[in-house]
Amino acid sequence: xxxxxxxxxxxxxxxxxxxxxxGQIFAMIPxxxxxxxLALLVLPILTAGCTTPTHDLYLFGSINSAGRVAGSRDTAxxxxxxxxxxxxxxxxxxxxxxxxxxxFDPRDARVFYVxxxxxxxxxxxxxxxxxxxxxWDMTESKSIMVDPNDPDTVYAALPDGVGVxxxxxxxxxxxxxxxxxxxxxxxxxTVDRTRAGRVLAGCEVGIYLxxxxxxxxxxxxxxxxxxxxxxxxxxxxxxxxAATQSAGALVSRDGGLTWEKIPGVPSAHALYNVAFDxxxxxxxxLASWTYGLLTSEDGGxxxxxxxxxxxxxxRVWRTAVDPDxxxxxxxxxGRALYVSDDFGRTWTNGGMENSRIQGxxxxxxxxx
Amino acid sequence: MNRFILSCLTFATATLLTxxxxxxxxxxxTAPVQDAGQRHEAYLKRVDEVLDxxxxxxxxxxxxxxxxxxxxxxxxxxxxxxxxxxxxxxxxMKDPGTGPFWMFPAVCVAYTGRDKLTPEAQKAIRxxxxxxxxxxGDTENHWVMYYSSLxxxxxxxxxxxxxxxxxxxxxAENLAEARGYLLHWMDDLTTSVGQGEYNPSHxxxxxxxxxxxxxxxxxxxxxxxxxxxxxxxxxxxLAANTxxxxxxxxxxRTDEGSVIERWNALTSxxxxxxxxNTPTPSGYGGWGVYFAPVAKNYMVPEVIYRIATDxxxxxxxxxxxxxxxxxxxxxxxxxxxxxxNYLRRDYAVGSIQGIVNDAIQGHAWDVTWAEPDPRGxxxxxxxxxxxxxxxxxxxxxxTFPEAMITAVTFEGKxxxxxxxxxxxxxxxxxxxxxxxxxIALYDIAPGTRFEHINGFFSKDLFNVSEDKSGWIxxxxxxxxxxxxxxxxxxWIPYLHYSGGWAKEKLPLGGRLLVSPHxxxxxxxxxxxxxxxxxxxxxxxxxxxxxxxxxxxxVPSVTMxxxxxxxxxxxxxxxxxxxGKPLDYSKWKLFEGPYLNAEVGGRKMTITHGRLxxxxxxxxxxxxxHVTK
Lengths: 368, 628
Fold this sequence. Notes:
heterodimer; A: 368 residues; mainly beta; Methylamine Dehydrogenase, Chain H; 4-stranded antiparallel β-sheet; 6% helix; B: 628 residues; alpha+beta; 3 domains; 9-stranded antiparallel β-sheet; 6-stranded antiparallel β-sheet
């Protein structure tokens, strides 16, 4: 972990936990009051050059999915993979080819929720057993997130709106008051880690905000096409980024209330997701089918294509940054997972051959 | 008997019995069988033909090669080889499938074998429903198969805890969820606003087979009668839309083969089995085999049989359906589809108003003529805009834009991104039909992939001539055809993907009229050879029709049809017939001489002559009337 990043984390956050969605960090965030104590405790470990990751990395995806149709026999293990100590990935639990991403209960990481083709899947025992938590009236969940400040509440992005559970995924309700009757295709849902019930949803026609646990929503930004990703900075909770289908990348510096386009990011084609680097507040990454991988190392002022060393064409379905090491990941559709330890300047094949990785989730080992 | 002799005997027997009489024989007569007893006997004979054929393909000494779930269901139905079937089931359940196309065959084996398979085999089936997750899929037919199967398995194994099911839900929860969807599909969708997958050339099996299973095996008498009523509903629609058993367009979903060789579809298996008026496809349609083990529990009622086999009089059937779900880019989740079908003895004309009902597999309109033997015949004519669109993909699939187009070409729809395709729907096509006149207009946005239209000209057309009047005349079967391209064109050979997983296109004969103009149109007129002294007289009549059209600004046609109607049709506007705009909003769910239903009514009245059957999903009653 970079020292600067650590400083940034503990200097800016109120006491809270957060469970980020796709591609982001799930971490226990210390308060200012505990800064000194924690720093004293943690500093020796950091300065000892500890290489032991403090997060588990989970991947959601499928292998050899080209040509798969409903009912196809599985030719590989699909669904959830966890990083092994040797840097590889081991399949975990259900063989399910259409998992997109997941979110873990911060109180107990054995409890997690997965956005999947059949709706929302839930396990309470670390993936040993599963339940299709939703019924026939909710399908093809695109994104899911536990509220870190109210972890009994789970939000699911759906192609026709938003589903919410207030009882750890046991029952689900539609909470769409304020969403448009049409145009509420929701690709991503992200909970603000600073306040229970404050959630942003990326929809077909804009970004929507609720501050009362989805009892009502309001549009904070209209868009012409879908907002594909919304992420909150691990360094500054007021700072949010959005990746969109046709409006490029957007930034909000006031907690998602107002948004502006980030200059220098192309917008003619879709951007799939965006990632912050928890180890370095100036580092950002964007994934795109068309543009490949874009990075910024100055907080978004300048962007560079980091495709040299990736398979051509670099169809980057997902990107993420390891919160422990700053390692940059690029999931190349149908090819493999690529990793870079110099933020995209050079790449190596990180395994997961022939995969389509849909989501990265980092979970602190302390939450196990 | 030693093993060698047994093998020889088995092989010889299998060879003898693998004939497909109704596929290989001359086509059956299309005239109805008048005697009810004979009809019933003929139906049972056809069912047995399927069972015999499937059983005859089995070398029982090689169960790993010859016993799939269809074969096992057939053997169990015939009361044969329970021990071998049991062993094979145990083996197969070690590697189960993963979705609705595995679930309903597994249900078929579970129920046909519930008193025949060994306890170990039954346990193996049950265990597979614990260990292997099943994907629900994303289409209407996926869900009907999935929930019918889940319902029946939960019914078969009640009171079992959540940990014994792949879903993580107990038997009662699975049953309730499945019932919830099935009632929604029957009551709120199909019988109220229409099927999304209306008139599918293949997927009818994916509805009919689960409905037959429900009608046969559900413990709840309500679900049994619902299954039976849905079978009547589906087959009544099939009967009214077939020409001598052959389903023609429009189709919510069809495929590369069926869209040109109209007979070569699973619907023809059901027409053959239920109505006996067309040859069965090869292999009895594949999935069709799963209908046969239970088929004797259902027989299509006479009123539906009569509709299917009576083409003595012309009729128009106007119906409503709906599109596939639009997740995005639409004001309505499933906009209405307005279908019109005109059927005559020699040909049929059908269309929808021009809407993307299914971007990949939709087929909007055609004129299809009757062939004495439809096998191998490309007995159809139509045009289309071969649209390939990320936006269309995103409308109907919850996906990112770029990958989907390539993906579908590897998922059984190889032509989707081909400029010379003849399958798929376009948002740039608007259609008007009155009887046997079709006007299809195209206003393609610049930059669209692709910027031309294709007209399909079959290898089975004859007397084709490009007249200096601008009309192209042709004859198909006993049908005269006139095709009027509204913009310049050229010809290319028609190349065909023979199957969903084909990698190469093959020449099958026929050609495409390619018109590379954004503002475009097609007019087609059809008539029976009986209506004119000769082909020249038909051509003269067509040339004499008053016709004005413009492709400036917005494509528009004003003409008098062969049937004397004054028509004005402008792209994007309501068609005007004899001075009166066509108001689609007043269309009923079904309206015609045979099928009638109100939107939201949950009730269909099926009529033929003095016979009438009313399917009422409000009261769950089937009522038959015979007028005096």
